[in-house]
Each structure stands twice: as structure tokens, then as C-alpha cells.
Write a structure and sequence with these properties.
Blueprint: H1 12-39, H2 51-61, H3 68-84, E1 87-92, H4 98-111, E2 117-122, E3 129-134, E4 137-142, H5 143-149, H6 151-160
Parallel strand pairs: 1-2
Antiparallel strand pairs: 1-3, 3-4
Amino acid sequence: MKFSLPAELISTEDVKSVIYELKLYRSQLRSRIIKKRVTNRLGKTDLELSLAAKAVLSRYFGRSEPTPAGLEQLLLTLDNELSNMPQIRLVLADVPTPKLKRDITDWFRQNVSPDLLIDFRFSSSILGGMVISAGSHIYDWSYRRQILDNKSAFAGVLKRV
């Protein structure tokens, strides 16, 4: 089964975090089932799931109730998909806002790959623009690169200031 990512999952760390959260949820679900068999009462889980984990469960199970076996299959699917999902690293000059992350991720998922994971980084040394690393390819659209490529023009601009 090809699993499509919900919009809340942006980076590899997000996916790993949801996998960890779902493992805890599976454990608590198993405890609830055992408690029900012993006491004939179904207790509540203590774990409050994040929006990303809820989106993954909703996308995978639809309206049906998750089961431990179903969660195990979901976790296997996520682990398998994580190793096959295309990933890029995007370096910006400043820490991106959540809205900017979402906008960039939406654009990449619409225009490049629907399952793309983006590892956002920041480095003030690029001065502006962005640097994208995809596999062994690096695409540098930073201001720093433009200045270094046009040293003579930059020196001329500074003389006029």
C-alpha cells in the first residue's frame, strides 16, 4: 500500500516522531484491551495524540477504530515508506515560520513529489535566498553565492555607496 503523507508531516524528524508516538499509542491500546478482558471495562488511553499522528491514523484507518494489529501494519508501512520517500535539505538565512514551512512543503509536494520530506535548516552565512541539497546535487541560490560569483560588480557597488 502506498501511503501518502498528511500535510502535517514535513520532515524526516516529523515522521520519526509520529512513528514513536504511534508505538506508544499501540502499547496503550493493547493495555486497554487486556484491561477490558480482565475487568470488562474499557479504560481510556492516557496519551493525547498530536495533530500529525491523528492525521496519519485518519488517513490510514479512515473512520474505523485502530487495532493493535492494524497499528503494527501502519508502523511497518511508515518505516518502509520512510526509507523510500524522497528527501531534500533546504537551507534558509533565518528560521522559517510554520506558515513558510507549510507553504514551501505544499509547493514542493504539488510540483515535485507528493511524498517529499524537507529537512529545514538555517544559516545566516548565506545572507538570503536558499540552498537546496537533493541527493548529491546542490542548488545554491543564496545571496552569498551571487556576491562571490560577482566580486568585481560587488566592489563597484560598494565604491558608489
